[in-house]
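Consider the following input, taken from an annotated entry for Enoyl reductase (ER) domain-containing protein (Bondarzewia mesenterica).
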Amino acid sequence: MKVLPNFLVGRPETAEFDFSGIVVDGNGTGWRNGDAVFGVVPPGLCRKSREGALSEYTVVPSSHISSRPANTTPVQAAGIAAVGLTAYQCLFDVAGLEEVCQGRWVKVMASASERNRTYVMELGADEITELLTSPWSSHATRPKFNVILDAVGLADDSLYAKSETYLAPGGVFISVGPQPTGWVDVPKLMKLMFHLIQPDWLGGIKRRWIWVSGQPRKDTIDAVQKFVADGKVKPVIDSVYAFEDVFQAYDRIMSERATGKVVVKVDPDVE
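Applying the prediction step yields:
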């Protein structure tokens, strides 16, 4: 989005999407004043209504929120919705993980730097590869992957361009959407777009590429809530900042060193 002018992306707008908080007006939706909830203001709604999460009050459809799990604090719950919705829709709605799991063990390989190897293994990965020293194409001789999930939003086309070497026929390459960080990434993005529209009979890539944006649905956000409430998913917090230190929070995000969610406390009294 950095490469697009303000008038195309609807800026200025209230920033950010994830939140947790207390209902102050259920407006006849079934939510009661005082209910503890978490939820998301999706980008489309931000642009349309100028509502956002980085504020004392925000207005969202009732389908965009769910009850805060009793085993989470407000700070932990603030980072659940967007990543939870995206991950759920990528793995279950698109990749069909429930069907894949039936009667089979699912192996998870993740990419991480050597510095974060232990951290990622503790989150549940079965194997770690360090992309700078062991690119995905080096795994071509292993049993091929059924699903590749690009949770970073790479604008670089090379990972998908070589996917036939490590992604099984019928497998799917899922992306949270290419996110160029500047004009230097535009040529890479154009190459990716070319790969996506090139027919396989003209040398195109014979693997599916699907963009998942994590649009909120009531059934999905409630499913994510249950995963957290049952202890199957644990929110991971990197750091917490006071509202007046919001620019430090953005510095942390832009450092690309965060290992978890960066949370801004609008209310200084919550934990």
